[in-house]
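Closing statement on the S-adenosyl-L-homocysteine sub-project.
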Amino acid sequence: MTDLPRIILANKKQGSLLRFHPWVFSGAIKKIEGDPKDGDIVEVYSVSSEYLATGHFQADGSIAVRAFSFKRINPDGDFWKEKIRNAYETRLTEGLADNTATNIYRLVHAEGDGLPGLIIDVYADTAVIQCHSIGMYMIKDHLVEALRACYGDQLKTIYDKSSETLPKNFAANLTNQCIWGEDKGSVIGVENGCKYNVDWFTGQKTGFFIDQRENRKLLGEYSKGKKVLNTFCYSGGFSIAALLNGAKEVHSLDSSARALDLVTQNLELNGLQDANHKNIKADAVEYIREIDVDYDVIVLDPPAFAKHMSARHNAVQGYKRLNAQAIKSIKPGGLIFTFSCSQVVDKYMFNSTVMAAAIEAGREVRILHQLHQPADHPVNIFHPESEYLKGLVIQVN
Ligand code: SAH
């Protein structure tokens, strides 16, 4: 027995928790015993008093409980240490946590690591925490201790970047800040031998799009002697991978001038300041409409076009237009690396959207690779919502 507040579910609402899906929606609750506040830890029970899960309570939003354990536990510092250690050991198994060629990886991928509401990204000697639930934010001192216990002297900085991802009311007076160690704003990390200056302070997300690591490596393998257009390039991840692997020429395109400054920094960092490379500040959709047919490889990695179901139809139309333009204008035999990170557009819908684009473009297209998020972004099989990145390498004739 614990004295945690209790959430009692309505009749027949326990099925998803019994299958380890970690969310309890407010509509599934019959009764609340105790007086939990947003962020408090609660236990969840069925209507017949069967223990189901322990998790963080949050009345702000539609998900009332995010479960982090399906066994009755005492959620003290040791519990969080074990959770973080499990995530770390998985990254060791994946060859990421102890790897001199790659020290940029995701340590905690929320539901995929049994820690709903929590993202932790590691950049060399720095961990950047991003909380998506109030409960995870409230235990951040435990997280700091757990990270220090795991990494020891290898860790120099822990930065909290939660102010944009927590509910607005709660986050109104929060600032992003260094919560342990040396207060710096960026660090140089390495991914498959490519160096990147990761700036979490002003950068997008936690500073880098770690989820494209394996896809950047694959692009490198296809780049030798090729002319590459990298659209939606952010800090130039795909561009650096292409150039270090012998691309003949690379154009990096983004609508953000700040992103293109990061590309320039990353080129210098890799000794590529004199490479055959050009930054292009433009809207990718408009630019691709105008290009000549002389690229061998085009990367299309837009931000999520749909964040919610209601925006899905327009998003699909957006992906179709973008892909159709790229298919029309690539050299015969050329490759397009095309992606979607919209969770509501699944891989089947994305494939049919690219097929519709190929029909519109009127060219022969075949799929060489079907791409996805890497192993440090694991998907809980009972929580398909954590699968979001999908991509195709298509060849156009
Ligand atoms: N491929 C990148 C990540 C892309 S993130 C990597 O490997 O790191 C999406 C990028 O698209 C952001 O940098 C954003 O500034 C840019 N962007 C958003 N809308 C755009 C548009 N209409 N045209 C060009 N770039 C755009």
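The chain has a mean pLDDT of 96. With this model delivered, the sub-project is considered complete and its resources will be redirected to Aim 3.
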